[in-house]
Sequence to fold (439 residues):
Amino acid sequence: MPGVSSCETRFLSDRDDGPRESNHTRVAEGTRSGRRTNRNVLMDLRVWNRTSAARSRAGMGMPGALDRLERRAYVWVMRNPVRRRRVGRVQLGLLPQMYDARTQDLAVVLAPGIDRVSGGVLSLSSVFAESRRILRPQGSDAMMSTLPRDPPLVRYSKTSIDVTMFQLSQALEFFPGLKRLFIHIPEFYTSLARRDFTHPRFRARTQRVRLHFNVLLQNIDLIPRPADIRALQQVGAVTCTTSHDAYLQNEKVNALGCPIRRLSTYVSPEQYERDPLRLREDILVVSPDPHPMKELILKDIRAAFPNLRLVVVRNMSYKDYKSLVARAKWSLTFGEGLDGYFIETIFSGGVGFAVYNPGFFTPDFQGLRTVYRDYGQLRTQILTDLRELDVPTEYSAYQDLQFRTCSTHYNFDAYVERLRNLYREYSFPGTDAPVPRAD
Fold:
């Protein structure tokens, strides 16, 4: 494993032979004998942004969404030693300013090395921020790290959470007396984590460290395989925390073979201001998720309500997105259903439309008129609901119902306490002090 002084940012390999090929990282087409051709040198920012967008659609690193040009750009950035060393030098300069090298107990939250805002990135950033507030008063600490196979990244520029990111290899070098390492793993990375954290080099570097892996199950469709959980259990303790209550009733979740804990998310009603209908604009916020019926539904809405402004969320900072949902009357999600487009609109005083997905919603949401049975019902019913709910008395009454339903599932203080209990349950020091509230 490379040392800090080398400014190398690779996780497991000492050799400058590029990243190992993985499910989402393939050797660029057009290269011969490992050499890059001019066609592969695609550092143009617009191309990199396209790559980031495609990778976000694929689940922040899952395979299957990159076309040939995007794949070349992504692989080139992954292999670019100049960029890697430059970012590494910045991180190594920040480490002693932000952390005490004598720290013995560290929690690390792994996150994508793509500077793109998403619900998953915001959730991971919140887990880091609250972990640090929980652990730091008693001498423990928390760090946010890019996934070992991702490009290094210092900060997410489009989120409101101030997070400085490092690399796990740097942490293992910087904290020589590390005794406990608690690693939060996003669910989509679990199969690769199995390879990385059972690798002999990693095990050699952490042989005196007590390891704990916590799988953050944010999307039930990306549930890890029990075999990957068992492999990680050969290295350290493993738990799984869920973002939605419905996951706790899922048979596949309960068959993972590790303790399951409810965590929830940072989203809660007290973080939003609810404006009444008279202060809201005639805007329908639309999630960017693809769906076969999406264009048909949006076409119907445009034809029936020509004065309604449809805004599909793309390339938008989180600050701008929150400002948008705070003004909009409505939101329509084509994603998982119980997502930020639905919940944050409701907490901001708007009305959300979605299709019921039993993997994410709990049964109490079935009583909401704008949570439809399927997309066929959504297409036939949404025009009527938009028209009938656009009356102050009807709008306010139904918005209150949606708000109360969502509020029963999301509470920030309970979320922080569950995170604290997770650390406490597994004997992580520093979990008994009061947690300072964020300003």
